[in-house]
Design goal:
alpha+beta; Alpha-Beta Plaits; two-stranded antiparallel sheet; 4 helices; 6 strands; 26% helix; 19% strand; binds iron/sulfur cluster
């Protein structure tokens, strides 16, 4: 097993305030399917926010998002709409 220097322990100290009315991530399913973005997003998200459904669509567990911006940076154009959560919602980093 790889020693990550306690990264998992530190991440476990984060807290999340869920905005139940509004996801800050929207996947444009048709474009994601057309570009094959799903496998990329599943692979690169450190919080495992994205998962592929049996029908090939992409599920988004936005409540776990670390707001790192990686998916926003690498997603093919037109596959995602991403913005920071509304004020008072999202992740609060407790360490590091
Ligand atoms: S911003 Fe980072 S943590 Fe959030 S969904 Fe994108 S890759 Fe995952």
């Amino acid at each position: 097993m790889v020693d990550l220097g306690g990264v998992h322990d530190r991440l476990a100290r984060n807290s999340f305030t869920l905005d139940e009315e509004c996801s800050h991530i929207e996947v444009h399913q048709e474009e994601a399917r057309r570009t094959g973005a799903g496998a990329l997003l599943v692979r690169i998200c450190p919080a495992h926010v994205y998962s592929q459904e049996p029908d090939g669509s992409l599920a988004v567990a936005y409540a776990a998002c670390l707001e790192c911006g990686t998916c926003r940076a690498v997603a093919p154009p037109g596959t995602l709409t991403w913005h920071y959560p509304r004020g008072g919602y999202g992740v609060t980093f407790r360490e590091g």
